[in-house]
Design brief:
CATH class: Alpha Beta
Number of domains: 1
Strand order of the largest sheet: 1-2-4-3
Order of helices and strands: EHEHHEHHE
Mean pLDDT: 83
Strand content: 15-25%
CATH superfamily: Vaccinia Virus protein VP39
Shape: globular
Helix content: 25-40%
Oligomer: single chain
Radius of gyration: 18 Å
Distance between the termini: 53 Å
CATH architecture: 3-Layer(aba) Sandwich
Length: about 180
């Protein structure tokens, strides 16, 4: 692996960041929030370390829309298999409320994948879980990637099984 002087890695407790207040311009939480036990504390920490008007982008799984068995009978098994200690999945309104209650305003929301990509992914996930197949294998990408390109044709608001939110830290009200 090529090393870069601009990148450094740090292993830390994501619910107690070892950083000063207001030091980051942007934060990315990609499929992280649903994995932690105390999601509210994580969002509070993000608010603490991000600058005023800083941007946070996060993605979390929501309900599966085509294979309802993934929402019910398989959800617990999927969460156990991946060591999920948090909620695992979010309803849109619950996620918005969590962010707003901890000082973020919502700028944009989008679902990804869209309907077609969600359909492909849910079928794949169902068969992998049901028949004990590995969830990642190079052959899957050879087959699914060309098909998933069609998913880009969907609109931003077209519902899929994962929510992406772009939020900004609210400005603090200053007393004069």
């Amino acid at each position: 692996m090529k090393k870069s002087p601009q990148i450094s890695f740090l292993k830390a407790d994501i619910q107690n960041f070892p950083f000063s207040d207001c030091v980051f311009d942007k934060i990315l939480l990609s499929s992280v929030l649903q994995m932690v036990e105390n999601d509210g504390l994580l969002i509070k920490e993000c608010n603490r370390v991000i600058k005023e008007n800083g941007i946070m982008v996060l993605s979390v799984p929501s309900d599966y829309i085509f294979v309802k068995a993934l929402n019910n009978e398989f959800r617990t098994g999927l969460m156990e298999k991946y060591g999920v200690k948090g909620k695992g999945f979010y309803k849109y309104n619950d996620l918005i409320e969590l962010l707003q209650d901890r000082g973020f305003e919502i700028l944009e929301t989008e679902y990804a994948p869209k309907k077609f990509g969600s359909f492909i992914h849910e079928i794949w996930l169902y068969f992998c879980y049901r028949f004990g197949l590995p969830l990642s294998h190079p052959i899957y990408f050879v087959f699914f990637y060309p098909i998933a390109i069609l998913d880009r044709l969907g609109s931003k608001k077209q519902k899929g099984y994962s929510i992406i939110i772009k939020a900004r830290k609210k400005l603090a009200i200053k007393n004069f």
